[in-house]
Input
Amino acid sequence: MADTDSIVPRPSRPWWDPRLLLADLVSALAIALAWWLLSLWLRTPTFPPPLEALRALFTRENGILIHFLVSARRIVLALLLALFLGLPLGLYLGRNHRIDAVVAPFLYLTYPLPKIVLLPVVMVLFGLGDLSRILLIVLTVTYQILVTARDAARALPMTAIYSIRSLGATEFDVYRHVLFPYVLPKVFTALRISSGTAIAVLFFAESFATTSGLGYLIMDAWGRTAYPVMFAAIMAMSGLGLVLYLIFEAAEQRFCRWTLVTRAAGRAKEG
Amino acid sequence: MLEVRGVEFTYRTGGRRVPALTGVDFTLAPGEIWAVIGPSGCGKSTLLYLLAGLLRPTRGEIRFRGGPPLAHQREIALILQGYGLFPWKTVRDNVALGLQIRGVPPAESRRRTEEILATVGLAEYGDFYPEELSGGQKQRVAIARSFVLEPALLLMDEPFSALDALTRERLQNLLLSLCLSREMGTVLVTHNIEEAVFLGRRILVMTRRPGRVAAIVDNPDMGQEGYRASAAFLARTTRLRELFRDPEMGGEELGDSGGDAGG
Output
């Protein structure tokens, strides 16, 4: 068949699929079990069993919820900012090859640079507040979104442009109706992947010159040898990463519903 | 309505010049259906892009209603090979897209969309995504998307080449009745001889690359009841087939009928 199915939807299951949820639950229990066995074997206060960490997680005096919310705010703001910077710029570069040719060498040169090493520079320029910590994440994640969006936009078949142009589309219509929806699933994938990196950067950014956030709490509890609290904070940070991941997955399935459509579903033969 | 005068087109790829079309002349009267037929790579698709205003002729002139065709001028509709549907939009949104872009009020857009979906027999498929449809149904959506704009000129690039023989005939009948009832000027590119004879009031025969006009065959019986089964239809397809025996014309490539997959 010579149709435009070059944009093949990726078959996947909705995140609420019971089989997936069951698999998630089993995996979580397996990890807890391994943790518990390891703590039995090590028999040291530096490695408390999971239930003790869980108790610390829900002990109000530890203030884990507050630190969680501070961290969540930083990372959500950072990801939104990265999205609003990286996505439009990536689409634009993917569509305008001449400008991309000028910008691309700069991107290639700075892309491999671990942005995290700019921490001192960012803190000198933007102070020791939230802004610096957010910007450090933005620096890291924007690249990934920008490069993903640009490469995806570049791959758009010329016939798709002809198709909408022939309907009388302006350049804005091309972005709105073709380019943006075409790259969106890939951008969500990039966001999901970079949420892990973003958490890592957040941890580092919070472990220095601050008194709030889960990264601070982990380092502080370590210093106080409050190991259950440290593990509780680690769990909270993992939870934050997981929640972000799930949000992006749910958003992708909500806004890119067409990718869930399989060829088999509801197909009625020409009758 | 559409005049093509001495049109040449040359592609430039990395400093190389590849001539695609040379010396194409013809005039299409309002409401007339033209079939363009020729061997693969003869520049048929290039000709359509030129007529649609997506490309500009290297030499010569195209005039549509007195001026050069412009891509954003909404009297010309183009149906590309492979339907050109957007998989992220439902059937209804694909069909309504042209109206939306032209700023037609939502209520009217909705009414016209439902109307044309019913006309092409897809009234119940508005909420489907293109991926959920068969090839023939996708082609119906593409036809609906063009016709809903009520263009004066319809351009189609091998519209039915990927379909099975039965579906193809059914859609050819649908297209013919739509074009004739709306008196829409149509240029249809094909490499199927039967299709050209069934749908083309005039048949523009092109040579191998760089394509030029080898012949313009008049086909006055087109559109008559039962034409496909008539002796005149057979005679005309046989004549065209003989024309293509000439090695200059692409040899046997277009000689066989019916079941070629095209593309």
In short: Residues 1-11, 262-271 of chain A have pLDDT under 50 and may be disordered.
